[in-house]
Amino acid sequence: MNERGLVDLFAAMNSLSGPAYECKYYPCHFEGQDCSLCFCIFYPCLLYRFGEIVISHSGKPVWSCKDCFWIHKKENVEEIVTYFSFYPRQVLVEADWYFFSKAFQEILFGKELGYAIGKAYNLMPANFYSYNCKETDERVFLAVKIEEGYLAVRKISDFEDLGEEILIPIKSGNIIKGFYGNRYVECEL
Ligand code: SF4
């Protein structure tokens, strides 16, 4: 459970905090940012439009939000708070990553674009959505498991032998590659 994210979300549901001028890290992203959801409820969102996989100091892969401005824009915080205000708090306390990913996709795209494939969840459509993509011969994408803040990442080429993993494109520079629709594609972010 993303406890700090929930604490911030519940606090924001009471009132938005606005810019945290008293914080020694302020502004961590931009002047005037809304700091209500400092610990993002969607972490790790696994959407390359906001972040990317990096190697942490301990040598393990993690999701980096270093360049994500979205969660700090007041209008987005308001939309998130409105969305979750329809749920009893107990439901949110017991919700898992999949619940929050679906919620995030509905907020961003108006509907859930990801879908289950056996025990796995294909988040590639949400990653590729709205980008210009072209077909490629390269058959490659990532299968990711979230493990206590870290990510276990496998590079794979098809949908066989999937466990309880989340499927996302592989990123190189500003290009993401994977499976979208009925073909392998590469898209520029
Ligand atoms: S990249 Fe942004 S939206 Fe995604 S988990 Fe991090 S802070 Fe949240």
Summarize this structure briefly:
The protein is an alpha+beta fold and 189 residues long.
Provide an overview of this structure.
The chain is α+β, with helices and mostly antiparallel strands. It has 2 domains: 110 residues, no CATH class; 77 residues, no CATH class. Helices cover 25% and strands 26% of the residues. The strands form 3 sheets. A 5-stranded mixed β-sheet has the order 3-4-8-6-7. A 4-stranded antiparallel β-sheet has the order 5-11-10-9. Strands 1-2 form a two-stranded antiparallel sheet. The relative contact order is 0.14. The model has no long low-confidence stretch (mean pLDDT 97). Bound molecules: iron/sulfur cluster.
Layout of secondary structure:
Layout: H1 3-14, E1 52-55, E2 61-64, H2 74-84, H3 89-94, H4 97-109, E3 115-117, E4 120-122, H5 124-128, E5 133-135, E6 141-147, E7 150-156, E8 166-168, E9 170-172, E10 175-180, E11 183-188
Parallel strand pairs: 4-8
Antiparallel strand pairs: 1-2, 3-4, 5-11, 6-7, 6-8, 9-10, 10-11
Iron/sulfur cluster binds next to loops.
Salient structural properties:
189 residues; binds iron/sulfur cluster; 5-stranded mixed β-sheet; 4-stranded antiparallel β-sheet; alpha+beta
